[in-house]
Design brief:
The complex is a heterodimer. Chain A is 67% helix and 6% strand. The mean pLDDT of chain A is 89. Chain A has a domain of 203 residues: f41 fragment of flagellin, N-terminal domain (Up-down Bundle). Chain A is mostly helical. By secondary structure, chain B is an alpha+beta fold. In chain B, a hairpin with a 2-residue loop joins strand 2 and strand 3. In chain B, helix 2 runs parallel beside helix 6. Classes of the chains: A mainly alpha, B alpha+beta. Chains A and B meet through helix 1, helix 2 and strand 5 of A and helix 2, helix 3, helix 8, helix 9 and helix 10 of B.
C-alpha cells in the first residue's frame, strides 16, 4: 500500500489521541480513587456498587434505630432500677409497720409512704427527650397523675400499653419499650400503695395480704427490670451484627470500586512512555521527505 | 510541451497536498498519430490525452458509507454522554442517594414521630427527591430540545449541499460532460457528497453525461440541475424528515441526522418515560400508605387519615403536597392515631425498598437499573464510535493511498519529467546541430 504524508500524519494523530484518552482515564481513576466515575465506565459494576451503597445506607439506618432503641431501654432500665430500690424500701417499711401498733407511728409511716408514692409516680412519668417512656404509644401525654384530692392515681385514658416498634433489619421490626401497663400494672401498683397508705393514716397496721401485695409488686418490678436488661442485651448484640455486616459490605465495596493505585500508576507510566515514543518518532518521521535530498539546480 | 503540462500538474498536486478532499491528478499521454511516409509509419512524438483525477469509485463509496455510520455513532455518543451526566449517581448526590435519604428520614420519623424537627427533615427529604426528579426531567427536555434544533440545522445543511451539487451538475453539463469539465469541479462535487454522507445515508449515481444524482434516505434530492429540499416535521410521535413537496417521510438509516432522529424519537423519550414511571409509582405507593396513616393530633385537631404526601404523576410534576409543607403535623407517621406510634412511617420507608414496580423491582432498584441502562447505552455508543473510527481510518488510508498526494512520488515524477524534458531538449539540440552541419555543407 502506498503511504503518503497525509496518511502518516493521520495515523500519528490517531495514536496520540488514543494515548491521551487512556492517560486521561487513568488520571481520573487515580485522582478520584474510584474505578467508576460515570455509569458508562462500567455499567454493571456501577449498578453493583450502587446496590452495595444501598445496603450500607440501610444498615446505617438500622444501626441508628438499634442505637436509639438501646438508649431508650437504658433509660427505662434506670427508672425501673430506682423503682425496684424504692419498692424494696417500701416493703421494709410496710413490714416494720405491720409489727407496730402505735397509731402515731402508723400515721408517720403513712406520711412516709405518701412521699414514696410521689417518688414512684415521678419515676413512672420519666422522660426520654420529650417522650414519656412508660406511656406506651401515648408518648406526648403524662401516663399517670395524682388526683387533686390525692385519693387516687389516674392512668391516661388513651392507654399506656402501646408497643413502640422500630426496624432493625430489612422488614424486621422489633419492640423496644416496656409499657406502663407492664411496668406499673397499668396504675394498679399505685392504687395498692394508696390503699395501704390510707390504712396507715387511719391507724390500721398493714395486714398479711397487704405485705403479699407489696411483695408481688416488687417481684413484678424486678421481673420487668430484668426484661429491660435482656432487651438491651439483645439490641447490643444486633448492633454488633449490623456493624460487622456494614464493615464487610464496605470491604466488598472498596475491593470492587476503588482504584488499585499502585497498578493504575504503573499503567499510567506505561501509557506516558507510549505517548512519548509516539511523539518522538512522529516528529522525526514527519520531517522525512525526498525534498530534503534534492539539491536545487536553479 | 507535454513535459511542461506534466510539470504543471505535479506542481498543482504538490500545492494541494494538504487540501481536504483533493484527488491526485495525472496527465494521461499517448503516442501521437504516426505520419505515413514512403518508407512506413514514422512516430510523431507524444500528445496529451487528458488530465484526470486518480480515484477508485468503489473505495470512494466505502469511505462515503463509513463516513455516514461514523457521524451517526458520534452524534449518538455525544447525546448519550449528555444524558449520562444527568443520571450520574457516582458523585454521591444523585436521585439514588436522595431516595435513600428519604428512607432514612422516614425511619427516623418512626423513632420520634412526635418530634417536629424530625418531621421537618422528612418534609425536606421529600422535597429534595421531588426537586431532583424535576431537575432531571428539565435537563432531559433541554437535551431533547437541543437535539430538535440540531435536526433543523442538519436539514438546512442538507438542503444547502444538495443545492450546491445541483449547481455543479449544471456547470458540468454546461461545459459539455465530465471529461471536458475541470477535475477540480469533480473534487468540489466529491467534497459536497462527502459532507452530505456525514449527515444522511446517500446513494450517489453518475450517469454517462457526467451528472451526479443523489438519493438520500430513499428519496431523490438531486436530479441533474434540480435540488429538492428536505423539511423536518414535528408529529405526536416525534420528528420525521421528508421532502418538503411530499408528505411521505424519508427512511433515514445512517448519518448524523439519523443519530439525532433516533436520539430524539427513541433514546431520550424512552429514558424520560421510565423516569416518569418511577416518579409516578413513587407518588402512588407512598400515598397509598400515607393516606391510611394518621396525622399528628394537635390541640384541637384530632389525628385523621386521608392525607397525601406527594402530588403529581410524572418526573416533571412530582412535589410534596402543600398540606404537608404548610403543616408538618399532616405527615401521617402513626398507624393507630397515637402520637408516639411510628408504625406508618416505618411502612412508608419500607415501601421504597419493596418490589412495587411492575417488573418486581423496588423503586430504588428500578432507578439504579435505569442508570445502568443509560450507562450501557452510552458505553455502546462510544464503543461503536471507536470501532467505526478504526474502520473509517482504514478506509481513508486506502483512499489516500490511491488518491492522496505523496510528495515523494511527485518529486520523483518531477525529476523524471525533468530528465525527459532534458532528453527531449538534447534531441532538439542534436537535430539542430545536424541541420547546421547540413546547411554548412551547402554554403
Amino acid at each position: 500500500m502506498n503511504i503518503n504524508e497525509t496518511q502518516v500524519v493521520n495515523d500519528l494523530l490517531y495514536s496520540i489521541g488514543q494515548s491521551r484518552q487512556s492517560i486521561d482515564k487513568l488520571q481520573e481513576q487515580i485522582s478520584t480513587g474510584k474505578l467508576v466515575n460515570t455509569p458508562s465506565d462500567d455499567p454493571v459494576l456501577d449498578e453493583r456498587l450502587m446496590m452495595l451503597q444501598n445496603q450500607v445506607n440501610q444498615n446505617n439506618v438500622y444501626t441508628q434505630n438499634v442505637q436509639y432503641a438501646s438508649s431508650f431501654l437504658t433509660q427505662q432500665s434506670t427508672a425501673l432500677g430506682s423503682a425496684v430500690n424504692l419498692m424494696t424500701n417500701i416493703k421494709t417499711m410496710v413490714l416494720s409497720a405491720a409489727n407496730d401498733s402505735s397509731s402515731q407511728d402508723l400515721q408517720s409511716y403513712g406520711t412516709q409512704l405518701d412521699q414514696d408514692i410521689d417518688q414512684l409516680l415521678d419515676l413512672a412519668n420519666s422522660k426520654f427527650g420529650d417522650k414519656y417512656i412508660f406511656g406506651g404509644t401515648q408518648t406526648t401525654s403524662q401516663p399517670f397523675y395524682m388526683n387533686a384530692d390525692r385519693t387516687a392515681v389516674t392512668t391516661n385514658p388513651d392507654g399506656v400499653g402501646g408497643a413502640l416498634n422500630l426496624d432493625v433489619g430489612f422488614q424486621i421490626s422489633d419492640q423496644y419499650n416496656i409499657t406502663g401497663q407492664e411496668a406499673f400494672s397499668g396504675g394498679q401498683m399505685f392504687s395498692d400503695l394508696i390503699a395501704i397508705r390510707d390504712e396507715l393514716n387511719n391507724g390500721t397496721a398493714p395486714t398479711e395480704a397487704d405485705i403479699q401485695t407489696v411483695d408481688n409488686d416488687l417481684d413484678s418490678l424486678i421481673n420487668t427490670n430484668a426484661k429491660a436488661g435482656a432487651m438491651t442485651n439483645r439490641f447490643s448484640l444486633m448492633q454488633a451484627q449490623l456493624n460487622s455486616q456494614t464493615q464487610s459490605l464496605q470491604t466488598t465495596q472498596s475491593n470492587l470500586g476503588d482504584t488499585d493505585v499502585a497498578a493504575a500508576t504503573i499503567k499510567l507510566e506505561e501509557q506516558q512512555t507510549a505517548l512519548q515514543a509516539a511523539l518522538q518518532t512522529g516528529s522525526s518521521v514527519v520531517q522525512l521527505s525526498l525534498a530534503n535530498y534534492l539539491t536545487s539546480t536553479g | 510541451m507535454t513535459s511542461q503540462a506534466e510539470l504543471d500538474t505535479t506542481s498543482h498536486n504538490i500545492a494541494n497536498a494538504n487540501t481536504d478532499g483533493y484527488t491526485k491528478q495525472k496527465v494521461v499521454t499517448e503516442a501521437a498519430t504516426p505520419i505515413q511516409t514512403t518508407y512506413g509509419f514514422l512516430g510523431s512524438g507524444v500528445q496529451i490525452e487528458s488530465v484526470e483525477s486518480v480515484r477508485d469509485a468503489f473505495v470512494d463509496q466505502q469511505v462515503t458509507n463509513s463516513n455516514s455510520d461514523l457521524s451517526q455513532a458520534t452524534i449518538e455518543q455525544q447525546t448519550m454522554s449528555n444524558v449520562e451526566s444527568i443520571f450520574n449517581d457516582s458523585s454521591g448526590d444523585g436521585l439514588s442517594d436522595q431516595l435513600n435519604a428519604l428512607f432514612s428520614a422516614f425511619q427516623s420519623l418512626a423513632q420520634s414521630p412526635e418530634d417536629s424537627g424530625v418531621r421537618q427533615t422528612v418534609m425536606q427529604a421529600g422535597q429534595q427527591v421531588a426537586t431532583t426528579f424535576n431537575v432531571m426531567n428539565n435537563e432531559l427536555q433541554n437535551i431533547e430540545y437541543q437535539v430538535g434544533q440540531e435536526i433543523n440545522s442538519d436539514v438546512g445543511k442538507i438542503n444547502q449541499l444538495s443545492a450546491t451539487i445541483a449547481d455543479i451538475n449544471s456547470k458540468i453539463l454546461a461545459s459539455g460532460g465530465a471529461s471536458k469539465a475541470s477535475p477540480d469541479l469533480q473534487d468540489e462535487m466529491d467534497n459536497s457528497v462527502s459532507q452530505l454522507s456525514g449527515l444522511v445515508n446517500v446513494k450517489v449515481t453518475t450517469d454517462p453525461t457526467g451528472v451526479t444524482n443523489v438519493t438520500a434516505g430513499g428519496t431523490v434530492i438531486v436530479a441533474a440541475g434540480t435540488a429538492y429540499a428536505f423539511k423536518a416535521t414535528q408529529t405526536s410521535s416525534g420528528i420525521t424528515v421528508g421532502r418538503s413537496d411530499s408528505s411521505q417521510s424519508a427512511t433515514i438509516s445512517s448519518g448524523e441526522l439519523s443519530g439525532l432522529l433516533s436520539s430524539y424519537n427513541g433514546t431520550i423519550s424512552s429514558f424520560a418515560n421510565q423516569l416518569d414511571n418511577i416518579a409516578n409509582t413513587l407518588v402512588q405507593t407512598v400515598n397509598a400508605f400515607h393516606s391510611t396513616g394518621y396525622t399528628l393530633s394537635t390541640n384541637g385537631t384530632p389525628a385523621q387519615t386521608g392525607e397525601d404526601f406527594f402530588v403529581g404523576n410524572s418526573a416533571g410534576s412530582i412535589a410534596v403536597s402543600s398540606d404537608i409543607v404548610s403543616n408538618l403535623n399532616n405527615i401521617a407517621a402513626s398507624s393507630s392515631g397515637d402520637p408516639g406510634d411510628g408504625g406508618n412511617a416505618t411502612a412508608i420507608a419500607n415501601v421504597l425498598n419493596a418490589p412495587v414496580m411492575s417488573d418486581g423491582q423496588s423503586i430504588v432498584n428500578e432507578y439504579q437499573g435505569l442508570v445502568g441502562q443509560v450507562g450501557i447505552a452510552s458505553q455502546q455508543a462510544s464503543d461503536s464510535v471507536q470501532t467505526l473510527q478504526v474502520s473509517q481510518n482504514q478506509m481513508t488510508a486506502f483512499q489516500n493511498s490511491i488518491s492522496g498526494v505523496s510528495l515523494d512520488e511527485e518529486l520523483t515524477n518531477m525529476i523524471q519529467y525533468q530528465h525527459s524534458f532534458e532528453a527531449a531538449a538534447k534531441v532538439v539540440t542534436t537535430t539542430d546541430a545536424m541541420y547546421e552541419t547540413i546547411i554548412g555543407m551547402v554554403t
